[in-house]
Amino acid sequence: MSAGLSLLAVGLGTLIPLSAAAIPLWLLYGVITGTIAMGCWVIAHECGHHAFHPNRRIEGVVGFVLHSILLVPYYSWAHSHAVHHAHCNHLEQGETHVPPRATSPMGRTTEQLKQRLNPTVFGIISLFNHLVIGWQLYLFLGATGGEDYDSPPLISGIASAISTANAAFSLSLSASGCCDPTWDCSPWLPS
């Protein structure tokens, strides 16, 4: 269903003209497709928490397919997200949104930048770094942790978690799903 809705969204999007007069249509299109994508993310997120279906195999397939369509590595994300919940809001052991310590080099640099720039400009730069640059760094390098992590926590956590062939297979499958998400909807694509 998600792949069908995605294909429908792409098909409808190609029908909307690229003109100023079509801006209201593009806004409506963005709201509708964004709502559908958010609904898919909610289901995918619940699969990562093992809260979607009592059958783990069904849950794994649904989670993997939805995460791959959304370009998020499912098994890697599920692992890092479990660690995130284990240390949620902990300023030392948390994996996400951990501010640098004021006494660390990164903390001093951040504070100096904050004092030199207008608060609005600093806020915009911080948002850009977090939302635009940070997401790619998370996806490709696993860079999310605070200063206590010597290497990106996703990578180091996964490396320590790969103790079985099954875990290694799941993680490589997760990465391949994001590298080529077209396999998810290939049965529905016209040949």
How would you sum up this structure, described in words?
It is a single chain. The chain starts with a helix and ends in a 6-residue tail after the last helix. Helix 1 (2-13) packs antiparallel against helix 2, helix 3 (56-69) runs parallel beside helix 8 (165-179) and helix 4 (74-86) packs across helix 7 (153-161). The protein has helices at 2-13, 23-48, 56-69, 74-86, 105-116, 119-141, 153-161, 165-179, 182-185. Mean pLDDT is 75; it is low at 150-164 and 182-191. With 191 residues, it is mainly α.
Task: Give a brief outline of the structure.
The protein has helices spanning 2-13, 23-48, 56-69, 74-86, 105-116, 119-141, 153-161, 165-179, 182-185.
Largest sheet: none
The overall pLDDT, averaged over residues, is 75
Number of DSSP helical runs: 9
SSE string:
HHHHHHHHH
Uncertain regions spanning at least 5 consecutive residues: 150-164, 182-191
- Shape by Cα distribution: flat
Tell me the radius of gyration. 20 Å
